[in-house]
Design goal:
By secondary structure, the protein is mostly helical. It is built from 5 helices and no strands. Helix 4 runs antiparallel to helix 5. The chain is elongated, with a radius of gyration of 17 Å.
Length: 119
């Protein structure tokens, strides 16, 4: 939802295309991961470890959002770009939290698997 608000702020303000493209890309990727988990497609498509792909997406998105949203906030061509930059920074924090929570979940799942007795 925050990615969609960021995209709408950048589109409505007529911001630079890079701002809009990054917000749009993150909105689409987030929606695809949400559909993947809601429809339980991650259990059917076992060729990729989906939580790790989600962590990778969150880290890369956080890096791009850091650069783009700091530019949007510092340049401040208009209030829409400033609002999009602020929402983008909120999205950056959410991406970092998502990556941290998923990495803890993965490490906790591995710890339980190792403590099982060997056969």
């Amino acid at each position: 939802l925050v990615a969609l608000v960021t995209l709408l702020c950048f589109v409505a303000s007529g911001a630079h295309e890079a701002y809009t493209a990054l917000a749009g890309m993150e909105t689409v990727i987030t929606a695809l991961f949400l559909l993947l988990y809601l429809l339980r497609l991650d259990a059917r498509m076992r060729c990729l470890f989906w939580p790790l792909a989600d962590i990778f997406n969150s880290v890369i998105a956080a890096l791009f959002l850091l650069v783009v949203c700091l530019f949007a906030v510092t340049v401040r061509t208009n209030k829409g770009t400033l609002a999009g930059g602020v929402f983008g920074l909120i999205l950056l924090v959410l991406c970092v939290v998502d990556a941290v929570l998923l990495s803890k979940k993965i490490s906790l799942d591995k710890a339980r698997g190792r403590s099982a007795p060997a056969k």
